[in-house]
Each structure stands twice: as structure tokens, then as C-alpha cells.
Design goal:
Elements: E1 4-7, E2 13-14, E3 22-25, E4 28-29, H1 40-49, H2 55-60, H3 71-75, E5 80-85, E6 88-93, E7 96-100, E8 128-130, H4 141-150, E9 155-159, H5 163-169, E10 174-178, E11 182-183, E12 193-197, E13 217-221, E14 226-229, H6 238-246, E15 251-255, H7 262-265, H8 272-281, E16 286-290, H9 304-314, E17 321-322, E18 330-331
Parallel strand pairs: 7-8, 8-9, 9-10, 14-15, 15-16, 16-17
Antiparallel strand pairs: 1-3, 2-11, 3-4, 5-6, 5-18, 6-7, 11-12, 12-13, 13-14
Helix pairs in contact: 8-9
Length: about 325
């Protein structure tokens, strides 16, 4: 049996009373109390032994989100929220610009189904880079190098044991690591608070690093709003814990794609019904879906996630107001009631 220990950043404030830190089984982080190990047999079952019952429907579904250019917003100073596709967002509030999980380039395994709403070179006013976890569709080396080069004063907020990975990509990065339920130190005059919170997920980038870097989600507290970025997560009881700790949330950015086949995806991502349930549990006022439409990661047809979520909302099963923005559309979140 691997030795059980707990880890957190002792330099940061832990906001949940009595929380000892993230549980480690040997060198591997756990989802709360349980160690999650993705089964390679499930990958083989999915790729070699399972026929997608929606194969033809998926092939015929060429839907992709509409795209509008957001260069003017990036060059300006107005508050706003912009979806760059997948799980990448730009949020500006009170003169501070935050960039979440940027994936700006195609790679061998990730081919974008729609254009980026800006040129990567236009991301030049970033103050804080928030990285939820280490999977390659959230932590992209080429994107990290470019953003670091173009924003020399950039500060990175991320998870425990992520710093060596990031500084290996861009040695000048200023990285602050946090465990779950910890508040980042932004300085005494910062106009916002940022917390690193749980998610039900896992980590792997290579053959020997399974669960050795933590994963999670973010909460941003502005002057009058609570904005939650869910990262990658399965549906689990951490949503109830977050609501219990912080009360109703104003805006939630939650994943709705990459959920089929369920035997492969259900412990990693939320489907549209689960995302709606999570938003309800969080008592969210507004829901902005993400993690759909940009890359082909799973078996469901491209348009199914957002179509299903819209049906859920139309049926009265989503209490939050649903926003389905174009990629690059500036959302005036500060005006939302």
C-alpha cells in the first residue's frame, strides 16, 4: 500500500475549515479521498472493440460554432468575457485581464474545427494566466511559450506540482501553485480574489507522470460577482461543497462535450444534463457552456452537446440563464443580473 500524505501550499490561505490539503497515495493525487486510475483497457475497448452507434450521424454533422473577431476587445480596456473556443476564455475585470487554458494552435492530435477569433499574436495584454490542469487540450506548450513571450510580466496561477512543467516550457514564468480550497496571493491591493477549487479529473502527459500534478477549477470574486471556471470535471459532490462554501454563484463556465461513450468519458467530463445539474447545484445565475464544438474528442455528433443543453433549458430543467455565445463574441457579464 502506498503511503498516504496530504499536500497544500503552506504559503497560501486555506479557506475551507479543517481541510488538511490534497490527499496523495504515494506520489499520486486523488479525487478527494479516492485514487482514480484511468484504465487503458477502456481505451482499447473504445478504439478497437466498440462501434459508435452515431457514426453516420456524427459524420454528417458539420456544425461548428459561429466565429467573430475579438481583436478590438483584446486591444481595449473594457470589461468583458470572450470564449476563444474549447475551454479557452479571456476575462477582463477592473483593469485586469485573465486568460484561461489557452489552446491557440493545432497539433498532431488536435485539429480545430473553426478559426481562432483572433491572431495569437494579439494576446498581448494578459496579466494572469489561469491553468486548470495538465492535459494537452488545456495546457499546450506552443501556446504557453507564445503567451509568456508576449506578456513578460505575466503571472501564472495553477495547481500543485505544475511549476516544473511550466518553467520547462518558459523559464521566466512566475508560477504560483495552489491546492484545492486555497486562495492565491495577488497582493494587498488586488481588486479581485481567486481560489483554486476541486474537480473530478486526473493528470497524465507521459508514461510515468500519472496523477503527479494536481487538477482543479477556479473561482474569481470581483467587486460584485462570483465567476466559476469548472476546468475538466466529471459530475461529483464537489459542486455541492463549492456551493456550501461560497453560496450562489453568479456565472459558471462548465464543460458540456466529450462525454460519449460513457464508459470512457463519464469519470472525466460532464454531459449536458450533468452540466445543467451542476449549475443548479451551484445555484448559478448564468451558465456559459464550453468544451464543445472546437475539437473532435469523442463519439457524440458535434452539435449534440449545445442542442441538448438548449433543450434542457427550454424544458425548465436549468435554473440559470443560458448563454451560447459565438466564438469571439464579447459577453457583457458585468451587466448580467
Amino acid at each position: 500500500m502506498a503511503r498516504t500524505t496530504y499536500l497544500r501550499n503552506e504559503q497560501l490561505r486555506t479557506v475551507k475549515a479543517g481541510y488538511p490539503g490534497n490527499k496523495l497515495f504515494g506520489s499520486q493525487f486523488a479525487n478527494g479521498e479516492e485514487l482514480y486510475t484511468p484504465e487503458f483497457s477502456n481505451v482499447l475497448r473504445w478504439k478497437l472493440l466498440t462501434e459508435n452507434p452515431q457514426k453516420e450521424e456524427k459524420k454528417a454533422d458539420t456544425w461548428a460554432p459561429a466565429v467573430v473577431n475579438c481583436a478590438e476587445f483584446l486591444a481595449g480596456q473594457d470589461d468583458g468575457l470572450v470564449w476563444l473556443g474549447h475551454a479557452s476564455f479571456v476575462l477582463r475585470t477592473q483593469g485586469i485581464t485573465l486568460l484561461f487554458d489557452p489552446l491557440l494552435f493545432d497539433s498532431t492530435f488536435l485539429k480545430r474545427r473553426h478559426p481562432l477569433p483572433c491572431r495569437p499574436e494579439e494576446l498581448t495584454t494578459i496579466d494572469l494566466l489561469l491553468l486548470s490542469h495538465g492535459h494537452r487540450d488545456h495546457l499546450d506548450e506552443a501556446s504557453i511559450k507564445l503567451v509568456a513571450r508576449q506578456n513578460p510580466g505575466l503571472r501564472v496561477l495553477t495547481s500543485l506540482r505544475m511549476a516544473p512543467l511550466l518553467t520547462g516550457m518558459a523559464s521566466t514564468l512566475q508560477v504560483q501553485e495552489a491546492g484545492w480550497w486555497q486562495q492565491y496571493d495577488l497582493g494587498p491591493d488586488a481588486p479581485l480574489d481567486i481560489y483554486y477549487l476541486p474537480a473530478a479529473h486526473w493528470h497524465r502527459r507521459g508514461l510515468t507522470d500519472l496523477n503527479k500534478v494536481l487538477w482543479g477549477s477556479f473561482l474569481i470574486r470581483t467587486q460584485d460577482k462570483l465567476i466559476y471556471f469548472g476546468g475538466d470535471s466529471a459530475y461529483a459532490d464537489h459542486f455541492e461543497d463549492i456551493e456550501r462554501q461560497f453560496g450562489p454563484l453568479d456565472i459558471c463556465l462548465l464543460g458540456i462535450g466529450a462525454y460519449k461513450p460513457a464508459f470512457m468519458m463519464q469519470l472525466s467530463h460532464t454531459n449536458p444534463h450533468e452540466a445543467a445539474k451542476a449549475a443548479n447545484v451551484l445555484r448559478a445565475g448564468h451558465l456559459v457552456p464550453m468544451h464543445h464544438g472546437t475539437f473532435d474528442l469523442s463519439d457524440e455528433p458535434a452539435s449534440e452537446p449545445i442542442r441538448t443543453l438548449q433543450e434542457v433549458a427550454a424544458g425548465g430543467m436549468l435554473r440559470a440563464e443560458l448563454h451560447a455565445p459565438k466564438v469571439g463574441e464579447v459577453m457583457p457579464w458585468q451587466q448580467w443580473e
